[in-house]
Amino acid sequence: MAIVDPRVLTPLKAPVPAVKPSPGPMGKGTGAAVSFQAVLKEQMGGLKFSRHASERLESRGINLSAQQMARLEDGVRRAAGKGARESLVLLDDLALVVSVKNRTVITAAARQDLQENVFTNIDSAVLL
Known about the structure:
The chain has 128 residues and is of the alpha/beta class. It has 3 helices and 5 strands; from the N terminus they run αβααββββ. A 5-stranded mixed sheet has the order 1-4-3-2-5. The radius of gyration is 25 Å and the shape is elongated.
């Protein structure tokens, strides 16, 4: 039989109660899971287009090429790196207002539609 030195033993601590994460939207999942999903989606890239922006692009017959989308995403990523929240992105002959935080294009206009327009509620501009 082995002899145990009492100086080596540490007293047992009471177990720490588990903390339940708060439920996410509509009671599904956990708050932590929703945050993880949001971060994962952002890291995987891909901008969203609001209904308004989609309608504007469609009504004006504007289609963004894969190269333009890549440049737009890069511009939004650079704006985010500078702490921007709402940016005016000038891409070729397009002006797009983008929610950098939500990675969502809010509205879009072609150069010919920009005569005497004022863009409000933006904190930055990205020229591509």
